[in-house]
Amino acid sequence: MGLNVWEPLTDSVATLRAIVSTLAPQSGGQKSHTVAVVDGVSMTTTPLWLHELCRTPPMLRIACPSRVPIAGPPGAYVDVVPTPPSERPKLRSLLVSVSWGGEYPNPSRNRPPQFVHLELTAGRITSVDHFARRVPISRLTVPRGYTATRPISLGERDWTANPGKLVFGDCFGNHLCYRWSHGNRDYQIDLHAWEPVTQTVRVLRAIVISTPAGHH
Asked: Which of 94, 132, 170, 176 is the most buried (most CB within 10 A)?
């Protein structure tokens, strides 16, 4: 739990302590159980807290997955980013970013279950107009850290009822992104990629098809 601080700092600390003291004790989280294995990666049912989080805003429900990769660390870092209210609904967006574990300097370790970074976006999706020359997915390599890379379009996929587009390095230089449209709104699910990227593709597909928009 975090609190935006003010001066004197002692007041901020006292306020945060008062808030924390009102919290009810929670039992330890249940251990994740494997419900499927996708290309060697164990998948589990989406944790209840994440399921409720991504279903609470009506605009994000269609992109709420029921399966995610099993992650070793018990905790998760969650970031919810809404755009400021606008008179033009098409400019509104909502991002839910969840990461289990910390990103390692060595990209080979940034894979489930050591590290998982999943993002769900509804609304305005930022994308590029120009892509690098397409290469086979089996030859894609994941850049280190936040190194910029020119996005590569990987073509259409029918993972959702309305076919979407798969892009490498668009939403993030090291993420695999799947975006589609439903009704009058755009959606995107992206996942921190690991090598072989073909494995990331299969896991991302399993996540996408487990959403209400998924095309089984």
From this structure: 176
